[in-house]
Every structure is written in C-alpha cells, then in structure tokens.
Amino acid sequence: MTPEDADRHFGVVGVYVHIPFCARICPYCDFAVVAGKDHLAPRYIEALVAEIGGGESRRGIGAVYVGGGTPSHVEPRLLGLTLEAVERRHGIASGAEVSVEANPEDFTKDLARGLVALGFTRVSFGAQSFDPVVLGYLGRRHTPEDITRSVETARTAGFGSVSVDLIYGSPVEDPASWEDTLARAVDLGTDHVSCYALTVEQGTPLGRSVASGEAAPDPDIQADRHELAGMRLSAAGLGRYEVSNWATGGHECRYNHIVWAQGEYLGYGASAHGHLDGVRYRNLRRLDAYIAAVERGVRPLAGEELLRGWDAEIDRLFVGLRRVVGVAEGPGTAALMETEEGQLLEHAGVVSRRGDRLVIDRPLLTDMVQRAVLGLPEPWAQAAAANNVSVDA
Amino acid sequence: MSDQTRIRNFSIIAHIDHGKSTLADRLLERTGAVSPREMRDQVLDTMDLERERGITIKAQTVRIGYHAGDGDDYVLNLIDTPGHVDFSYEVSRSLAACEGALLLADAAQGVQAQTVANAYLAIEAGLEVIPALNKIDLAAADPERVTTELVNILGGSPDAVLHLSAKTGAGVDRLLETIIARIPPPSGDAEAPLRALVFDSYFDAYRGVVCYLRVVDGSLGVGDAIRFMATGETHDASEIGYLTPKAVPVGRVGPGEVVYLITGVKEIDRIKVGDTVTSARAAAVVPLPGYTEPKPMVFSGIFPTDGDDYPKLREALEKLRLNDASLSWEPETSRALGFGFRVGFLGLLHMEIVRERLEREYDLDLVATAPSVAYSVRLPPGEEQVIKSPQDLPEEHRGVSEPFVRAMILTPTEYVGPIMELATGRRAVVGGMNYLSPERVELDFEIPLSEIVFDFFDLLKSKTKGYATLDYEPLDYRQADLVKVDILLNGQAVDAFSAIVHRDHAEEYGKRMTTRLRSLIPRQLFDVPIQAAIGGRVISRETVKARRKDVTAKCYGGDITRKKKLLQKQKEGKKRMKMVGSVEVPQEAFVAALRVDDDL
Ligand SMILES: Nc1nc2c(ncn2[C@@H]2O[C@H](COP(=O)(O)OP(=O)(O)O)[C@@H](O)[C@H]2O)c(=O)[nH]1
Ligand code: SF4
Ligand SMILES: [Mg+2]
Hints:
The complex is a heterodimer of chains A (about 400) and B (about 600). Chain A has about 400 residues and is of the alpha/beta class. Chain A has helices at about 5-10, 40-55, 75-90, 110-120, 130-135, 145-155, 175-185, 205-210, 220-235, 255-260, 285-295, 310-320, 330-340, 340-345, 365-375, 380-390; strands at about 15-20, 20, 35, 60-70, 90-100, 120-130, 160-170, 190-195, 240, 245, 265-270, 275, 280-285, 300-305, 325-330, 350-355, 355-360. In chain A, strand 5 (about 90-100), helix 4 and strand 6 form a beta-alpha-beta unit. In chain A, helix 2 (about 40-55) packs parallel to helix 3 (about 75-90) and helix 4 packs across helix 6. The model of chain A is unreliable at about 390-393 (pLDDT under 50). Chain B has about 600 residues and is of the alpha+beta class. In chain B, strands 11-10-16-7-8-15-12-13 form an 8-stranded antiparallel beta sheet, with helices on one face. In chain B, helix 3 packs parallel to helix 4 (about 115-125). The longest helix of chain B is centred in the C-terminal third of the chain and has 18 residues, at about 505-520. Chains A and B meet through helix 9, helix 12 and helix 15 of A and helix 13 of B. Magnesium ion binds near residues 21 and 56 of chain B.
C-alpha cells in the first residue's frame, strides 16, 4: 500500500461495534468481556441498536468492524440487527469492508453462510496457534484442526478476506512450534495475518500467576519470533503494513487503517471507543452500566480526550507511526527530530526520514518512539501563530 | 517564674527501642499533661518520618507538672532523645540542658551498645544518672542479669536500679519520686545577667526561627532586648513559652527553666544551636560552654534531579540545618550529575533521614551518590589534603590515610566467633574483651570507618540473629594501600560512581559494582558496557544488552487514549532517571554500592 493510499483513509468513516460475550475468559485477556452471561445478549443488542439509532449521523460508512469478545458466540440474527441499525443510521457504502471476529470452535458452515448473507465480507479468526500445547497454555477451546476447517469454511461460504490472529512468545512455545504455526497459517492461504506478542496484563489470571513466580514471556525471544514471522510471511507474499499486521496486496484491514490515519470512526457498545470531530471518546466498560445508561436514554460515555491544535498533531504521529508507511512530515516530526531523544532514535536506526515521511524501521521499539512523541513541546513559532489567529478572529 | 528548687530537668536515654518514647507517654499521662483523648503511642514522635519508622530522630522536650509525695508541686522538664548511634549528638545537646538522666535498659534484651555509650555521655556531662529496667512485664525479662550488666557499667548498688514497665505503667510513681529525690535542682544565679543555652531550634514558615532555651542564670521576659553572644545578633524576645507539649506563652522565666523563644527572625543563618542568649543591656561576659560541632563521618553528593532546583536545594539545606545542627556541606560539581552539594552526615541513617526530609519537607527530587569517608592525601610537596569525595583523589600522591574508629560491639557470647571473622575480614585490629555478665560480652576493636559505615551493621545483625549491637567513635587517621576504582559507562568514567577502596578488596568491589549496575540500569537503545577500572586497567566488565522489544502488541483494540496514558506514565517513571552521557541511569544506581550482598 502506498503512503497516499494509507493516508487517504483519513477521509473514510468507520464503525466499531463491541460484542463482549465469550464462552470462557482466556487467562491472558484484558478486554471488556463477560462469560456466562449469554442470556443478556438480546438485551445488550437492543441497547446497541438504540445507541446506534440515537448516535451521531455521519453518512457513508467505509468500514465496519464487529469485534469482541467473541461475536461468533452470539446468534447471527442479533449481529444482523446490529448491522441493520448501522445501515439505517449511517448507510454502509457499497464495497465497504464489513469485518467480524470469530473463534474457530464456533465456526460452522451454517454460521459462515449466515454471516455472509448478513453482509459480512471479512472474517478474522482468533486462531492464536497451531500448537496444542500453546493453545492449552492460552486456555483456548479449539484445536488446530478447527482453525484449518474454519478457514476453508469461510472461503467456501464466500468471505472475500480471511484473517488469522496468532500469539507468539508464550513461555511454553519453542522455535519449532512458532515456525510450524507460521507455516500452517501460510499454507491455508490466509489473506491477512496478525501476530501479537503475548502480553502479561495486570489483573488477569496470567498476570497473577506471573506475579507469583510462574514463567513470564522473554522479550528477547519475542523479538526473535517477530523477526521470524516477518521472514516467513513476506516470503509467502504477505507484506507487513503495521507493527503486528501482514497482508497480501489489497487485503490490509481498512478499518484499522482508518484508525491509524487518524480518521473518524464511531464506537458502539460497552467499552467501544470512537474518534469524531476532534474528540476521542470511550463508552462505559461494564456491561450492566452500559445497558443501564442506554435504557435510561443517557449517552453511555465513560470519557473523552480532546484533540485540538498541537494535541491533534501529536495524536497524528502517535497513531500513524505504527504503520510501515509512517507519517508525512509536519510540525510534529520536525519537533521530534529537534529533541535529543529523537536524534538518538534516528542514530540508533529506530526512525528514519524517507522522502517526506518519518518511518519506524525497528517496529519492536515503537513504544519508545511514541513515548518520545508524547509531551513534545509545541514549537514556539507555531504557538505564536496560533495565538495570532485567535487574536485576529 | 518557677522556684528553682522545685524544678527537675532530665533526659531519657537508652538504646533504640528500649522504651524511651513510651515511658515519656506514661509520664505525660500520669501527670495529666496530655488528656486521654489526645493520647497516642509515642506522642512525642511528631515527625511523619518518626511515626512511620517508629524511631525518634529529634529530641523532644516537654514540661510537666507533678504533685509529689512531699505535698509540693514540681516542674519536670523532660527530654526524650533518639537512641541510634548516628544521633548521639542530639543526646549530648539534650544532656547539656539537664541535671539528670534516666537510663533505661530493656529487661529482656539487656545492656546494648548505645546503653553504654549514652551512659558515658551522661557521666561525662556530670549528670546524676538514674538506672532503670524497662519492660519488666515481658515474660523474657531477666531483671537479675540486666541489673548486673547495668551495675557493671555504672557502678553503684543493684538496689538503686528501678523496675519499670512503660507499657503498663508499673513503677512510674516510684520513678517520679526518685526523680524528685535524686536529681539535683538547677542552681543558677537569678540576680546575674541572663545566660540561656540554645539547645535546639527549628524553622516555622509563619513564625520564623523558634529556639529552645535552657535558662541558666538571670531571667528572660517578653519584650526584653536580647543578644546572641556568638553571632552578635540583637533582637527582642517577642514570645517565650512552655511546651506542655502544647505551646503555652509565659511572661517571664528564671534560672533552670526550659522554654521556646520566638524573636521574629526569619533569616536562618542568624541563629546557631549552642549559642548563649544574654540580655542586650546587662550582658553576661562569659558565654556558656556550648557544643563542639559534631564531626561528620560520611559524605555524599546530593544533586537535584532537575538542575533548576539547585537554589531550592541550597535553601532547603539551610532551613534543615536549623533543626539539625550536625549538617554541613559544600558545593560540588559532577560531570554526570551537574551542580549539587557534598553533604556531611553523622552516619548512614542520618544520611537517609536527611535525604528523605529534604524530599518531603521541601518537595525536592534528589539523586544521592554513594557515601564516602574523608581521606587524607599526602601530596608530592609534602602537604596534606583532605578529600571528601573519591573524585578529588589526585593522580599523583605519596599515600592516602583513612579514618579509624574505636568500635564496641555488645553481643551474647556465642556469637564472638562469627563477629571476629567479620571484623578481621574488614581489616579490624581487635583490642579487648570485657564480660558484662557470663552471657554478655563487650568486644572492642579499631577498624577503618569505611569498613563499618556501609553494610557492616546489617551483616552484624544477620550473623548474630539481631542480638549484637554496635557503637563507635572517631579515633585517628592511618595510612593504607588505597586505590580509586572508577566505573565507566559506555567507555566514559562516571565521576559519581568512583570509590576509594583497599587494594586487596578492589577487584571484588569492581565485580560487585558492575554486576549490580547491570541489574539496575534498564536496557536501552544501545549495548551499554559497564567497566570497573583502576587507573586505566579494567578489572571487571559487564554489558547491559540493547533493548530489542518495547512495543504494545495490540493497541487495546484501538483505545488510543488509554495507551497514551500508559506510555505517559512510563515516561514519568523515566524522569526519575538521570541521563549520564546518552545512558539513562536510575537514581538508585548511584547508591548501588550500599546495598548488602543479597544478590551475590
Ligand atoms: N512489653 C513492653 N513493651 C514496651 C515497653 N516499653 C516500650 N515498649 C515497646 O517497645 C517498642 C519501642 O518503644 P519506644 O518507646 O519507641 O522506644 P525508644 O526507641 O526507646 O523510644 C515499642 O513497640 C513499645 O511499645 C514495656 O514496658 N513493655
Ligand atoms: S475469546 Fe478473545 S475476547 Fe474472549 S476471553 Fe478469549 S481472548 Fe478475550
Ligand atoms: Mg523513641
């Protein structure tokens, strides 16, 4: 994807819908999820439909992403109600990307056909690994064969784009296991692969067991695994376009591109987040609180971040630098490269200037760059100019 | 003005944790100075730091009224003192304001190093010492043995030793009567010109400098013009009063009394603890003996993390000195850390406390370097130069001398072996052994200060299950084969890391430092080689490998605000780091040499 293509997503509006239900909570997961509350799904979807119906009225949605949680764990009929609500409120543009997340153990032929019939064009599987030992460590309920079957089922059902999520670097994984997982993902002919390093989050069962002395992932091993993924996937024709994402030409996730291009997207559902009119916002995280707010006719808002002036420029770098194409040079990149920290990052080969863009060449050090970006002081000249404008106005 | 014959001034002295502050509680309670509602444990430990750590750092003075068995009303001025070796100077100052001292010994633990040291301080000051066993309520109490130990150091009769429980209050009545009977009343001359000893002071943001005085001769009233004899400053006494422990203003006081004094002076350098206050009109000729300035034992560089805070740090040190007369410093410049001060301390606990007080009470963020003792260097032309910082050691010299102390360890006899082993490994010259009782022995030796001041105390405790205690006092300087070990980060010597050590220990020290620094310095963009070197010769080497992965896997499904907050927090954490060249060094790395060997 060219930088121009990447940046063009700035003008496309996306929609994110959160489905928090899962069959069981995986020990490493710190998303807003619930297990054993399936009976609340109809009521939750009702609330979702109400929130969408009363939402902001942007038109012409270019990408919809139904994530979770496990959307495939709820009845497709309910997902259909949600998509209809989006269509009614905003209109989904023709040729839009409509993604759904699914777990391999749920993915029957009927489900696949049903989802395609509802209008989903892309499916992303929580595959994680083809190694039963790793799947066991991660507390997953599916087998490697479930993944293979699901991908084939998706193809047959008519999904235009199929993606798998993989998790590397768990303490039980060895190099052969990861090598094999990559090979099998490639053999399946997936269009898109996301590889995430296993992250130990505080407050999760994994976090607690590591805190009590159980083995933790080794960052150096994870770096090795990421490098291996890069080699194997690019050899198979999947190019990396973001820190953790690879795709064959044309199969990059459009919804994600909107987010990284600092584009606008509406977030619906518990813990969903959006970006609209220079404001990043997020919804209430707890399922019951979310439902209660919507049922009372109140916006289920949990918090907002205003992006004005310099903050918006910082934000543009913050999100955009995760992409391989990086960001177009601007006042923010200039400010960064004036700092000692920025120069050190350039000297160490972490960032470089390519044409009129700033890119990250060592993606595994992205957080270092982002920390440097946060809190960059506004250049004096720019602040003064901004003041003048407001004085004249 | 109180009648001198009805005043008793005394300090409570003891080893740490033997119950001084708790006994003060009982005395305050028994005499009604503090109402049951206001009572809390160790009520005189008012500093946050004291309450958190459960120790007394500052001596505290309080005036209580007591209706004695003889039917008369007495005034007792009590000073609760700290027990740690670093604060023996506080004890000396308190003793100078008293005629008597109450020496406590824990009836179970027995006589400890600071019991002995403080007893000698009181005897040298010519005070009447009342020995007492505290904690007799404990099942493990062994009054007979501990009485023998006390008599062994103080002389006198076993019958003179009181039995107390500061916890239950047992024996407190008898103690009060003994204080009245045994401690002599003050004997100042009420007609003579005013002479009052400034035995403590502190800075109050609203009222300026507050002094604590012990009036020796003459009288002092509100509105009197007074002069500080050493500094020559003249002021009006705008308020004087008693501490009960609440401040109670009073019009005029005479000999023997203990009061606070406010003059409205805000300039902190105008008042010196140890000075004599006299009348500006009818001035005394001869000042009171005052104090000998305490000699700092260890020195450490203190630098503001943010270079702009340098003036604020200087001001904070000046204010703190008013409350801690033992503080001294001079400016220091470090290539690694910028502008700061080389501060002298009485010991490591003192250093820790000062640093914590500076950070808390003056809102500073500081980097402290590893402490060092003061060395004496013989220069080629023959003159001697004292250096308080290893970085000042000249390349060319004709020998280095180091301070020795006389150390005393009190221990149950079964630990003599391990203690001897520890001490000789630290270049100690063993002197005498003195049995206080069949189970308890005093070991005396001469040892380099640098060998005991850092981790010796912790090692001693761990080798003796906590039973041995230590006290020491300066002795002399002795020549030794000392070398400077430099630490290089990324090939650059970092002055703040240099240390002077004995040649025989240099290699081990270098290895320990490089290993510790490797675990303390976070991984960075580049490999960071860490080397220890003597002169140009590298004696040990470690590497902090470059960081390869520093990235959040998933952007929390797109919750960008949350990720920004997370990274922002990490960034704040980094502010506690100091950039040394291009290497980020956490503040605790600068005192890495101090940590006891738990990681080796
Ligand atoms: N059992 C018992 N404990 C005591 C007695 N006196 C003090 N303590 C405890 O000993 C500890 C140290 O007391 P503290 O007054 O702080 O000692 P200081 O360091 O000498 O001031 C505290 O936990 C007290 O509660 C006593 O008479 N009996
Ligand atoms: S299935 Fe996915 S969303 Fe659900 S608990 Fe597991 S990792 Fe979390
Ligand atoms: Mg105390």
